[in-house]
Amino acid sequence: MKRYPIILFDLDGTLTDPTMEIVKSAQYALHQFGVEESDPEKLRAFANTPLLQCFEQDFGLSADQADQAFEYYWHYAGSLALRDNRVYAGVPEMLEQLQADDRTLCVATARKTDNARKVLAAVGLKTFFPEHQVLGTDDNAARSNKKMVIFDLLCSLDEHHHEDVIMVGDRKSDLIGAYKNGVDSMAVTWGSETLDELKSAEPTCIAASVREMAQLLLAAQ
């Protein structure tokens, strides 16, 4: 694989495992309405289903309650649950090697930008990603999906060629966002979507482990 001077990483499901953050944040939000849920399988539904839908359809909250639960969820996720993210084994070592090879490392995430920066600081990855190279969604329609996040992030970087960039992520939205911005993509298979789902987005390459991701990105040093 060729050498990519600029690497955009998704955060959740790519660099970190957010499962416990999701579970604990959902438990906290539900607790505010007297719902005590301890079944991890039911709570993991929040990882793959829109929050409002999960609160209403899976836990019986009204639309108004679901809106309030959404706020409770993100209050907890943005504060007490930050350290419940777990960095996948091998990720810090990979980032250190890429940084030493003078790569520009960025995070393009569906999280809000400030929250993503807090997560990176809490899990010890902040040193690899300067603040201006971490970008997420915002509170209006100006940047509401991964395509827009990638576009705005690329616009903020120094002059570069699109063939120098690769987007690494665990969801089709990462891969489609990369394609729509004219950059290559790497699908990783340890996140939330199946291999068939990822293949349907026709990524440039696929990594089945953190070790393989590192090997592919570092092979062309």
Examine the coordinates and then state which fold CATH places here, giving the name of the CATH topology of the largest domain.
Rossmann fold
**Can you tell me the CATH superfamily of the largest domain?**
HAD superfamily/HAD-like
**Rg from C-alpha positions?**
18 Å
Biggest sheet overview: 6 strands, parallel
Summarize the structure.
With 221 residues, the chain is of the alpha/beta class. The protein has helices at 19-31, 40-43, 51-58, 63-77, 91-100, 113-122, 146-156, 172-180, 195-199, 210-218; strands spanning 6-9, 16-17, 86-87, 104-112, 134-137, 165-169, 184-188, 205-207. The protein has two domains: 6-17 and 86-218, HAD superfamily/HAD-like (Rossmann fold); 19-83, DNA polymerase, domain 1, CATH 1.10.150.
Structure description:
Helices cover 43% and strands 15% of the residues. It has a six-stranded parallel beta sheet with strand order 5-4-1-6-7-8, with helices on both faces. With 221 residues, it is α/β, with parallel strands linked by helices. The chain contains ten helices and eight strands. It folds into two domains: 145 residues, 3-Layer(aba) Sandwich (Rossmann fold), CATH 3.40.50.1000; 65 residues, Putative phosphatase, domain 2 (DNA polymerase, domain 1, Orthogonal Bundle). It is elongated and about 55 Å long.
